[in-house]
User: What shape does this take?
Amino acid sequence: MGRVKQDFVFHRDFKKEYPIITHGEGVYLFDDTGKKFLDACSGAVAANLGHGIASIGDAMAEQAKKAAFVHTMRFETKALHELAEKIGIMAPGYLNKVYFTTGGSEANESAMKLARQYHRDAGRPQKHIVIGRWQSYHGNTIGSLSAGGDVKRRHAYTPNLLNYAHVYSPYCHRCPYGREQDDCLTKQNWTCVADIERTILELGPENVSAFIAEAIVGSQQGAVPPPPGYFEKIRELCDRYQIILILDEVMTGFGRTGTHFATEQLGIEPDIITFGKGVSAGYAPLAGMIVHERLIDGLIQNSDGKFIHGYTYSGHPVAVAAGLAALEVYESDNVLENVNEQGNYLVGLLLELKQKHTCISDVRGRGLLIGIELVKDREQDLLFKPSEKAAETINSIAMELGAVFYPGTGSIDSINGEHLIISPPLNVKKTDIDEIVRILDESLSIFKSQLRKDETVEIAK
Ligand SMILES: Cc1ncc(COP(=O)(O)O)c(C=O)c1O
Assistant: This one.
């Protein structure tokens, strides 16, 4: 009733205006006013090869002309087999079978459901609880949101969420248990790991189906890698209590952290790796899970060979063709080498920036998944108030100046803690990194001077 029909988009935020992007080229996006943005976060850490790669577009068009859709309940395609083989070979150890979905949330739903069905059919019918971690993100569908630990995203739906358990992830820069990382490492007495075992025992191991964690915590904490040895201890616990270990590599997979999967740096073999984003470099909605042979054997022996699950668009031929073409570019452009080289260069520049700006309290991450923690004053350890929207405001300033970062809040305890993720396309050049850091530097300076003005007004009142 009564509204003029003029904008039909259900926007992410109805109070915001969004630039209309007309095209992209390499690390740049261009809007309809001609303004260009350096994509310093690959969209949402997804457009990992940048924009305008003709070979990926051509491969999608070719596949669409051949067979645009087949239903995987009855048919498969050559492209599906080829991509599964490439990913299976790339994945560590006995993680060999690849299941496709259209997004990371669905990938994690699939992994948690597979864990449950595997246990049930193996004669452990009570196992159904998933243990996740606070300040982690696994997606926005009800199951994935239940496993994730971002209070801001969860609280609107709290009554709808599944009864999953949560423990703290090891944010050693501000340990939630008040420990010092060196102390944990030398004494090998880790409160965060002990808390997981306590949680398992409290829930009853016979009830716990899976443990899910991001290999490196992405959007919720801003690129926080685990301390050395953490995941080995988690693996031991999962083995001891027959719990499926799911590593969420939706953000970290396909070279983002300097190896094909971040798992390779953790010294363990999970039971399931979930992936998304980088697999198609953002050219098509494609994600999935890579499953350990042990679970497949279980399906064949105990479940009549069937996983009771599936999506219409699982293994969509055009999306899979995009994935195949993207993996070819990763290989031909020697992207892994570039990630390590440019990642080190970026961290070096950010550490210099930290000297200049006391609002940077931490620089962390791996490869080209780098985060900075932002505080009001590092020396006094003074945090920004959530209402100051520091990360978001700095990113808006940067967008005015021509670069886009990935801002986040709640990294410390879901409420406090501001960070920016810097995650440019993996084929980024040194000159682009210089430009990213230059714009970040200027944005921080502008933000600080705005803040000083606001504070003077507040004091004058
Ligand atoms: C670690 C992680 N898992 C899962 C997801 C959800 O993926 P999607 O948005 O494709 O459903 C994301 C998305 O940002 C993610 O970063």
In short: Residues 54-332 form a domain with the Aspartate Aminotransferase; domain 2 fold (CATH 3.40.640.10). The pocket of pyridoxal-5'-phosphate is lined by residues 44, 103-105, 108, 137-139, 214, 218-219, 248, 250-251, 276, 287 (CB under 6 Å).
